[in-house]
Amino acid sequence: MLGTMMQFPLTLAPILERTGRLFGAVEIVSRLPDKSIHRSNYAGVCGRARALAAALAAGGVGRGDRIATLMWNHVWHLEAYFGVPVSGSVLHMLNLRLHPDELAYIVNHAGDRVLLVDDVLLPVYEKLRGRVNLERVIVVPTTGQGLPPEYENYEDFLKQGAAGYEAPQLDENEAAAMCYTSGTTGVPKGVIYSHRSLVLHSFCEALPDYFGLSQSDCVLPIVPMFHANAWGCPYAAGMLGAKQVLPGPNLDAIGLLDLLEQEKVTRSAGVPTIWMGILAALDQHPGRWKLQPGLRVLSGGSALPESLLRGFDRHAIEIRQAWGMTEMSPIGTVCTVKSSLSEMSEGERMAVRTKQGTQVPFVEIRAMVGEREVPWDGETMGELHVRGPWIAASYYNLPDQQGRWTADGWFRTGDVVTIDREGYVKIADRAKDLIKSGGEWISSVDLENALMDHPAVREAAVIAIPHPKWAERPLAAVVLKDGHDATPEELRSHLARKFNRWQLPDAIVFVPEIPRTSVGKFQKSRLREMFADWEWEPTAEAAVKS
Ligand code: AMP
C-alpha cells in the first residue's frame, strides 16, 4: 500500500520562489575586492537569478549544459548558485586556486559551455584561453572598472532573457551543480549534485544540532563557494531566508573579524587554518571586537586541533568540528556533545569535542578492514565507508574509478578512523598518510595536534619517511610562532607526555611554512617531496630501539 502524499519534486526552484517572496528585504552583503561593502537583498538575488536563467535559455543553453563559474564569494556567485540550476543547466564551480593545467583539464572534462568569471579573475582565465572549448565567456564586474572590450558583460547578458520566461519543471534527480575534488592524488574527479541531494543536504545542515540555522541568523561562509558548495551554506541559508555575508577575496583575519562584528554574524564556516589566524588576532588584540554572543562556527576540511578548541572557548566562541567530502555534498558528521554525556569530566568532554563527530541523519557509516567491519570500540582502526542520499554513487565520466564504491553500495572514503561506543568518529589519517612503524600504526594527525598544543608551535605536519629497519618512521615539520623558540628535544618531551616512545617523531625539522593545497589543507604529498632525500642518522635508529 502506498502513502497518499503528493509526489512533489525536491528542487531548488521552490527555495528561490519562497525566499524572494517571504524574505525579500533580508540583506545579502558582499565585500568587494577593494574591501568596500556591496548591499543587496533576497528580492534582488531572486529577481536576478531568474533573469540569469532566462538569459541562459535565450542564449540556447539547455537542460544539463554545464555553466562554469570562476568566482569569489559574493552576491553574483549566489545568483548563479540559484539561477543556473533553476534554468535546468548545471552550475560548475571551478577552484580558482588550481594550476592552469588542472583547471583546463577540468573545464574540458566537464564539457563546460559557458564561463562566468569575475573581472579580477580574468588573469586566471587568460592562462586557460586557447586550451578550453568554451562558447561564451561572460565577465562579472566586481570592481566598477571597465572591462576589456573583447569580453561580454554579465550585466548586459542578464538583460537578454525573454520577459515572460518560465523555468522548466525539473525532475528532482536532475543535475544541479558539480564540483571536482581537490585531487591531491590521481586525476581530478567530478561529482554531480542533484536538486534532490542539495535540498535534503540543506534541511540536514540547518538542524539545531548541526549548523543550527534559523531565519534570524546571519551566515558568513568563509569556505570558498568553489569548494564543495561552500559546505551547503548558500542553499541552507537561502532556504530559511537567513542573511548572508560573502567575504570576497580578502580573507585576512583582521578583515574577517571586522566583518563578523559589523554585520553581527551568528554562523560561520571555514577550515582550521582560517580559525587559527582568527584566534591569533583575537589573542593579540583582546577586547577589540564585540562579536555576537551566540556565534557558532563550523571547522572542517582538516582536523581541528585541541589548542584551537581551547582558544575559542577562551574567547567564548562556539566552534564545532564537521567532517565531510566533496563526494558528500559535503557534510557527513558533526561533533555535538550528546546530552547523555553531560556527566563527563572536562577532560573527557574535550576528548569528545576533538573527534569528527557522529553521523548526521541519513548518512550511514561503517569502518572496515578488508571485508570485516571493525567494532565501535574507539580503538580499532578501519577505513570509513559511507552511504546516504547526498553521497555520490559514481564520478562523472570516470568508469575506471568505480572501485571507490563497494559491491554492496558503500563509498570508500580513504579516511582511516576509529568509532567509539557512542558513535563518535575519529579520523586517524588519510589511508595513505598513516605511518606504519615496525608493523604498528602511528597516527600523524594525533602527533600534529599534540605538537600544535605546544605554546611555541604555530603549525605542524607529520609524514612517514621510509626507514631501513622499521619500514617507516615519523618526521615532523614544525612552524614556530613569531618570537617563540623551542628545540626538537623540548618538543619531543612535550609529546612524550601523551605518546609512547616508539610513536615519537625521530626528526623534528623547523620550516618557515607548511605547503598547503588549494583549499588550505596541509599538502603532505609536497612535504614528502621536500623530504624525499631524507636519510635517517644512526642516532635516530638508536632512539627507536631504546
Ligand atoms: P575535500 O573533498 O577536498 O573536502 O576533502 C575531503 C577530505 O578532507 C576527507 O576525506 C578528509 O580526509 C579531510 N577532512 C575533511 N574534514 C575533516 C576533518 N574535520 N578532520 C580531518 N580531516 C577532514
- Strand coverage percent: 15-25%
Q: What's the rounded overall pLDDT mean? A: 94
What is the helix fraction of residues, given as a range? Answer: 25-40%
CATH fold topology of the domain at 434-530: GMP Synthetase, Chain A, domain 3
- Report low-confidence residues grouped into runs of 5 or more: 540-546
N-end to C-end Cα span: 70 Å
The overall strand count is: 26
Class inferred from helices and paired strands: alpha/beta
Helical segment count: 16
What's the CATH H-level superfamily name of the domain at 434-530?
ANL, C-terminal domain
What is the level-2 CATH architecture name of the domain at 434-530? 2-Layer Sandwich
**Distinct small molecules bound, one entry per kind:** adenosine monophosphate
CATH class of the domain at 434-530: Alpha Beta
Strand order of the largest sheet: 2-1-11-10-12-13-14-15-16
**Which shape, going by the Cα principal axes?**
globular
Q: How does the major sheet shape up?
A: 9 strands, mixed
Radius of gyration: 24 Å
